[in-house]
Amino acid sequence: MTTLNIISAGAAKAIVTAVAEQTITDKLTFVNTKFGAVGALLKDVEAGNAFDVIILTNIMIDQLVRNGYLDPDSKVDIGSVSTGVAVHHESDYKNNYETLDVRSILLDADRLVCPDPSVASAGRVLLQALSKLELFEEVKNKLEFFENGAKTIEELTIRTDQKTIGIVQVSEIVANRNLVLLHSLPERLQEKIIYSVAISNKATDNQYSRIFVNKLTQDKDFLKKAGFDPFKENLV
Question: How far is CA 7 from CA 34, 44, 77, 155, in A?
Fold first, then answer.
């Protein structure tokens, strides 16, 4: 009996969950997954939490390689993910927002829910966008930060009668049938986050870890549908 332990950014939850189900065999009977904000997961690894496979931003993966946590030859860049603006599909304001640009939506909303910028990519991207738009002072009282993308989306689905907008990574938006992606942030406000996968130097089963990584990175159409812009050179 073999268990594969995977730590993953919330942005990759949909693809990790799907591939984990495909990887289970008679010998690999269980895949244990932990999802969260990238900054919090990085701290978990540095604190000594055990894992076999990890998906974080490419910068964080490189950092863990340099510090001796990962097999440097196992790293594969999965693709990049944009940050988007979302609303609940039953929101009373959905149709209005579909005709507005991002600046107008941010100004009109009563609440802007987003992952914590101290640990999550989407939160950091939002603050940078507000700075570029010179809107922070106008909207700061609307901002509500949550532990990670999953908690943000959970909050976004609670109330449909308010002007509540979520700013989350696109891969998390398209994976949730209750949400509508209104816009990706415009190019000048956007920072596409590159995600990579790698195997721990202390992986309990290197064979199944490599099988999982291969399955995760080789289906370009699957990655695109999940909100990733995959890197062609890593796909076969």
Answer: 5, 10, 16, 23
